[in-house]
């Protein structure tokens, strides 16, 4: 009887191991078990026994589509806000018709629906803060909600079968996640998932990056492979990207780095094998050795870093993969990293997280606040700056640099940041406090998505003509250094007050027809083979009559929507030209779309450190010199 019982136990154990082996070898379009465990949203460090992203759901369980009018109503209810707080909403109510009726652009309905939820939560928190401030029994104090750095060491002391690290305020360009661990267990397969926040009524969060390491291959290959993908409740799994690449697939570049390093999966030369850390070698019998960045039983140091176009992975100092951001799945949406599978975690460290400065410790605070708008005086220039909610550092860099030009401080030029709401309440609360402190932020009644940036362009035109009266209206980005003095000098030199588009003009461009392109445009969106002349997005200026027409047309619902905002401006101006407006296209070669060159008027893709360096050179050398290495 004991022998029979032991045999049954042995057989059951073997069946369990075989079943586990089959599950781990499934391809990426696998089902996921959702955890019913509740996670404390206030604690960024939490361990779970989770098996990664969500299972597919039946269509009837997806949140019901509701009328845009109903969704929008909460956004435009009059709130009990002070005059100072209302200043951040100068364009908010003027965009009501736009966000209610424009459902042409991708993600428009979702962006407004998510904004309605975020706005209600934010206003509830603001009201609670005011009540607490009036209640002497409640101790109030400003608490830092967005840390720059998070870490968890000695991970093996806790349950290493699953890990979850929350990012209270998302990720931004330059953020990194370093994972130190040893693939172990039966197969050594593991996965890393960067996930966002689920919407109310949706049990599972979107997966911005699914990074699946399969040391023993899958149904497609027996060799080790890395599979990258995304998941959303609306669209299920996307198209997977594999490394090594399939033989019939060409490698793409993301942030000038290969989608898959061609070393991966290739046989290494003998001398290279000797020089390479043995943790990066996967042996194929005794005949050859193929390079693979992870190996069962050996320590690996893997770092995911957020770039401008996608997410890069380096392992033990070598670039391995790049993964381009997909539409609506952008880094600011990431709220946590989940690690699960056969890996013994040693530590997880994140750095470069978006964080705001504590105004109580800023000595030059008054000099950083926006200058009051001069009453009944026409501005020479209004500058609208595109920014994302958790780009706190970029906005501070702009305030400390080119917003310190005399023309800006005197009120001759006004500058405002145009920022959509965030799905994360902590970010929105930090943003609200920042707006109240510096008085230079215009909140938008929608959640930021790249496909909706044309709405911000419209908002800039509304502010520059209806909120203030400016001779010229400019659009730029929060990673662009703008020489305000040179812009004003150029406007005087050109001496054109009507029908002006000034910038890096592109007069011969074609729509990107490849679905893989960030700027993909279908024939339905734009049937013609070429675009009308347009100016590149890092910075361009239009005369007030053009901005006024755009503001008026959007109010009447007569503005053609197009998701590429700089091209959209060109399309709108072309339509005005057809109706009799004489247009002056003034090309400025000193606007650099990528990087910096000495003598620049606008330098793009400048991080906070580069911005401060450029300003220091202007102050010390009185010349527009770039910051060399």
Automatic annotation (TrEMBL):
Pathway: Protein modification; protein glycosylation. Transmembrane segments: none annotated. GO terms for molecular function: carbohydrate binding; galactosyltransferase activity. One of its GO terms (biological process) is carbohydrate derivative biosynthetic process. Residues 163-351 form the Galectin domain. Its cofactor is Mn(2+). It is found in: Golgi apparatus membrane. InterPro entries: ConA-like_dom_sf, Galectin_CRD, Glyco_trans_31. Its main location: Golgi. It is a single-pass type II membrane protein. Keywords: Glycoprotein, Glycosyltransferase, Golgi apparatus, Manganese, Membrane, Signal, Signal-anchor, Transferase, Transmembrane, Transmembrane helix. Gene3D superfamilies: 2.60.120.200, 3.90.550.50. Residues 1-20 form the signal peptide. One of its GO terms (cellular component) is Golgi membrane. PANTHER family: BETA-1,3-GALACTOSYLTRANSFERASE GALT1, BETA-1,3-N-ACETYLGLUCOSAMINYLTRANSFERASE. Belongs to the glycosyltransferase 31 family. This is Beta-1,3-galactosyltransferase GALT1 isoform X1.
């Amino acid at each position: 009887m004991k022998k029979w019982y032991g045999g049954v136990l042995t057989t059951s154990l073997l069946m369990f191991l075989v079943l586990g082996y089959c599950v781990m070898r499934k391809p990426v379009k696998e089902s996921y078990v959702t955890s019913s465990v509740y996670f404390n949203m206030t604690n960024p460090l939490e361990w779970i026994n989770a098996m990664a992203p969500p299972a597919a759901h039946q269509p009837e369980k997806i949140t019901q589509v509701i009328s845009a009018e109903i969704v929008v109503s909460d956004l435009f209810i009059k709130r009990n806000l002070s005059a100072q707080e209302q200043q951040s909403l100068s364009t908010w109510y003027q965009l009501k018709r736009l966000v209610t009726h424009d459902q042409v652009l991708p993600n428009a309905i979702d962006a407004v629906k998510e904004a309605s939820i975020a706005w209600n939560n934010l206003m509830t928190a603001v009201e609670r803060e005011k009540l607490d401030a009036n209640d002497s029994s409640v101790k109030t104090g400003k608490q830092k909600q967005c840390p720059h750095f998070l870490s968890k060491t000695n991970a093996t002391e806790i349950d290493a079968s699953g890990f979850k690290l929350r990012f209270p305020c998302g990720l931004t360009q330059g953020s990194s996640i370093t994972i130190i661990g040893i693939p172990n267990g039966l197969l050594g397969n593991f996965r890393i998932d960067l996930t966002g926040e689920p919407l109310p009524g949706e049990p599972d969060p979107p997966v911005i990056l699914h990074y699946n390491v399969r040391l023993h291959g899958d149904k497609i290959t027996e060799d080790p492979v890395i599979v990258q993908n995304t998941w959303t409740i609306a669209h299920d799994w996307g198209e997977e990207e594999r490394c090594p690449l399939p033989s019939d697939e060409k490698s793409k570049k993301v942030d000038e780095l290969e989608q898959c390093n061609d070393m991966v999966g290739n046989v290494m030369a003998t001398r290279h094998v000797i020089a390479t850390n043995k943790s990066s070698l996967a042996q194929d019998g005794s005949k050859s050795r193929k390079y693979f960045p992870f190996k069962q039983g050996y320590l690996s140091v893997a770092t995911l870093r957020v770039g401008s176009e996608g997410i890069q992975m380096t392992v033990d100092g070598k670039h391995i993969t790049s993964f381009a951001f997909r539409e609506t799945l952008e880094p600011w949406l990431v709220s946590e990293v989940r690690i699960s599978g056969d890996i013994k975690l040693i530590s997880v460290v994140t750095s470069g997280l978006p964080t705001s400065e504590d105004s109580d410790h800023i000595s030059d605070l008054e000099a950083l606040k926006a200058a009051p708008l001069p009453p009944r005086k026409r501005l020479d220039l209004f500058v609208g700056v595109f920014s994302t909610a958790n780009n706190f550092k970029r906005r501070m860099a702009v305030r400390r640099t080119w917003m310190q030009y005399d023309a800006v401080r005197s009120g001759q030029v006004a500058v405002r940041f145009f920022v959509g709401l965030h799905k994360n309440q902590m970010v929105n609360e930090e943003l609200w406090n920042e707006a109240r402190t510096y008085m230079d932020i215009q909140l938008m009644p929608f959640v930021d998505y790249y496909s909706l940036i044309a709405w911000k362009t419209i908002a800039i035109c509304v502010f520059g003509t209806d909120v203030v009266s400016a001779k010229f209206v400019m659009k730029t980005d929060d990673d662009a250094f703008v020489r305000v003095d040179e812009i004003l000098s150029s406007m005087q030199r050109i001496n054109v007050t009507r029908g002006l588009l000034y910038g890096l003009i592109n007069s011969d461009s074609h729509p990107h027809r490849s679905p893989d392109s960030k700027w993909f445009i279908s024939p339905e969106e734009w049937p013609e083979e070429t675009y009308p002349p347009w100016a590149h997005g890092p910075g361009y200026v239009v005369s007030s009559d053009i901005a006024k027409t755009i503001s008026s047309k959007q109010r009447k619902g007569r503005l053609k929507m197009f998701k590429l905002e700089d091209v959209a401006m060109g399309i709108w101006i072309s339509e005005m030209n057809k109706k009799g407006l004489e247009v002056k296209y003034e090309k400025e070669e000193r606007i650099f779309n990528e990087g910096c060159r000495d003598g620049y008027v606008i330098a793009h893709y400048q991080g906070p450190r580069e911005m401060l360096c450029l300003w220091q050179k202007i102050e010390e050398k009185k010349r527009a010199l770039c910051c060399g290495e």
